[in-house]
Amino acid sequence: MLRVTLLDNCGVPITGEDSAQSATDGFVSVEFDPQYQEGQEYQQRKANGGRCVDERGFSYLRWVNLTVQLCTLDTDVVNLITGQQPIMTGDEFTGTVFSDRLLDSRFSLELWQPVGGDAVCDPDGQQQWVYWAFPNLSDARLQSGTFE
Questions:
Q1: Where are the domains of the chain?
Q2: How buried is 109 (Cβ within 10 angstroms: 0-12 exposed, 13-18 middle, 19+ buried)?
Q3: Are strands 106-114 and 85-89 parallel, antiparallel or unpaired?
């Protein structure tokens, strides 16, 4: 199961009339690619050529690139992650109007992955799940595709 929740500019879920959330099991995969900044290296030699300082600072996570492959083009999810204008038919989203607006829409993405192997079920026989949360995403881009 995958759930997308609309956030405000500060990364807080929007509540009330402007809130938006969509859940689907219609995805094939979610690939994540963490981007790290390597720690700074510090080196200093003594006058005799020996090592005085030879250390490296800690690396840190800058961001995570996500690639989500959907089974079908889910208009609710596309509108939430891109912030583009929805096409409405009555109260239903039926499409998206794409424009040249900034990709500044913020959203969270959560995944529930079924546990496999010997730990599939808890002692009560219930399916166990691994929960993944990507709590404050932006700059969502659709990849190229073909309509056939």
A1: 2-34+62-137
A2: buried
A3: unpaired
**What is the pLDDT confidence band of residue 93, given thresholds at 50, 70 and 90?**
confident
* R_g of the chain computed on alpha carbons: 22
Are the CB atoms for 102 and 84 separated by under 8 Å?
A: no
Element (H, E) at 33: strand 27-37
Residue 81 in 3-state DSSP? helix
In angstroms, the CA 130 to CA 102 distance is 34
Residues of the chain with pLDDT > 90: what percent? Answer: 60
Are 6 and 112 contacting, i.e. CB atoms less than 8 angstroms apart? no
pLDDT, tens only, 128-147: 999 999 999 998 888 887 77
- What is the residue-averaged pLDDT of the chain? 90
Q: Please return the burial class of 95, using the count of CB atoms within 10 Å of its CB with bins 0-12, 13-18 and 19+.
A: middle
What is the model's pLDDT at position 32?
94
